[in-house]
Known about the structure:
The chain has about 250 residues and is an alpha/beta fold. Helix content is about 45%, strand content about 15%. It has 11 helices and 8 strands. It has an 8-stranded parallel β-barrel, surrounded by 5 helices. 2-phosphoglycolic acid binds next to β8. The site of 2-phosphoglycolic acid has 13 residues, from β8.
Amino acid sequence: MRVPMIAGNWKMNTTVGEAVDLVKAMRKELDKVSKVTKVICPPFVSLVPIKELLKKSSIKLGAQNLYFAEKGAYTGEISPLMIADLCEFVIIGHSERRQYFGEAGEIINQKVAAALKVNLKPILCIGEKLEENEAGKTEVVVVEQLRSALAGIDDLDGLTIAYEPVWAIGTGKAATGEQANETISFIRGNIAKLYEHKIAQEIRILYGGSVNAANAVEFIRQPEIDGALVGGASLKATEFLSIVTQTAVIKLQK
Ligand code: PGA
């Protein structure tokens, strides 16, 4: 059985002090919820103090990005090893990286490979834009993103996929549970084609895009959806906790 996961992507929010306060506000209650993998992905500058705060906690730490080279003259970048020293997870290929920083196929592929090489667990984001969705191209787009991101990668152990329709991110306009479930089922089917049925059944696939405490159930109750990548709502301790708690209740009923 796939262990459900709720991951909070804090994006470019919180100073170190604010990040520390946010962790303190949710740590104790989150630790009471078992059987859900709980991940928070704060900005790079807060990873060190938060790692310290989470020493005895079941909450896992993730980074929001990485560079694929091991080290060297890449001013301003952060290497896989630097992140692996602090985190278990790393978000790769988020649509905001694709949109604002020109990340696409090959770069994302190199990042996934580099992360896996140092035993970091990638949360690989894929998803279609509004115009692609309206043109009925969702499946073509996600399968192309999936294939290019995973090119040459034989072992998916540790990898999580997040299906995030770009039009649903930060817009308050979430997909419906059925829509998301259908696309995620399609993605799983393609993992089976590219790898094996067993691997497809084991891999965690999350939904992301305007998930909050009020609509989380709609996604979590879907059989193909293994959890959520949460942006805005992960910055509020009570909202994030509520999403995690609801996930535990729903997924454990099954
Ligand atoms: P959102 O962001 O929940 O604020 O829509 C999700 C994401 O970008 O991962």
